[in-house]
Amino acid sequence: MNPYKYNKQVWKIVLLFFAAMIGIASLLYTNYLVKNLSISERTKAEVWAMSTRSIMTMPDVDDDFISFIYAVRDSLSLPAIIIDSKENIIFWRDLDSTKTNIKAEEEHKEGLTYDPDYFQKQLYIMKGMHPPITLELDTGESWLVYYKDSSALQQLRIFPYIQLSLIAIFLTIAYTVFNSIKKSEQNLVWVGMAKEAAHQLGTPISSLMGWIELIRLKYDAENDDVVNEMERDVQRLEIVADRFSKIGSTPSLSNHNVYHVVNDFINYFKIRTSEKITFILEGDKHVEAMLNVPLFDWIIENLLKNAVNAIGTEGTIKVSITENIAKEEIFIDISDTGKGIPRSNFETIFQPGFTTRKRGWGLGLSLTMRMVSYHKGQIFVKESEIGKGTTFRIILKSNLKYEPTQV
């Protein structure tokens, strides 16, 4: 199991678990409060209903007692409607004070609007929220009291969802900032290591160049093929050291023929691999793009090395260069007949530390993606099938401009 992928999955599961626990606890506690408050409000609605019935049905009694009943009724603030057995609205409370369901001249004089539809709509809403409270009258008739939740209870019902949304937004922002800081720190580490490696390589490379010249002079090997190839390898080391020294700085780009650059590197690379691996280069030989050749060679080198490792002993690596004239883009497809990549790893393989090999740092494709971005391009796994092979696609901006044909 890949440790990078495993650790990342474990942290995701742990964070998801704690987030779920916080969300469930918040919902359960809020539902507990809502339930208790709802019971309290029903009790208030019952008291209000009984006090209203007493006021409307009681005979003449002491004024102090009537005042007490009014005080009890008016102290209970809750949207409610009382209807009789024929669903006529007898009394209502805490609804829109500018409307009335009683059509009378004196009501209109007070600036009220006669709007019975409003009260019917409110009654319909109340019927859907709570079962009615039944009031039995001395006459044998029954009244039904419907009520709505108070604004405080309604807000409390939606509060946990607002709270969880704010927590989710906060965690998302915090996770993004943390990742950004972490990547910046990693980048500084990689840049420091790369520049130190380039510095350390400088002295032995210079010494090797001197030893090669001594070999030529001592053994008269000016045109010896072996010595020439040794010199090419040392020059290659110089290029590698130069690459590492430039990591972290913006590379300079210049116009190059893509086919020629790729062909030159393949010619160098293929004589250093097994003869059982066949290299094929095909496509448009005229497309041009803005490249930094040492870095672009590094891109091709990483992809070809991965292809060789995927193939093992015998197979084919094909590089195809095509141009999308409409979008002014260049497609470089590097295909191998290796073991393939699972679809679930199409994006993971470009992350630092990911590797399927027993040896390796898992930085090759991560650096490759960074170098492609230096060229303002894209790289991704175009297609892959287990046991049959993989195709990587690089997209670069074409440096050739085409004028539309005029008819």
Automatic annotation (TrEMBL):
Question: Its domain of life?
Answer: Bacteria
**InterPro entries (alphabetical):** HATPase_C_sf, HATPase_dom, His_kinase_dom, HisK_dim/P_dom, Sig_transdc_His_kin-like_C
Give the Histidine kinase domain ranges: 196-400
Q: Write the record's keywords in alphabetical order, separated by commas.
A: Kinase, Membrane, Phosphoprotein, Transferase, Transmembrane, Transmembrane helix
Q: Which Pfam families match?
A: HATPase_c
Which reaction is this enzyme known to catalyze?
ATP + protein L-histidine = ADP + protein N-phospho-L-histidine
Instruction: List the GO molecular function terms.
Output: kinase activity
Instruction: Cite the SMART domains for this sequence.
Output: HATPase_c
Q: What class of enzyme is it?
A: transferase
- E.C. number, please? 2.7.13.3
Q: Where are the transmembrane segments?
A: 13-34, 158-178
The protein's name in its UniProt record? histidine kinase
- Identify the species of origin: Sphingobacterium faecale
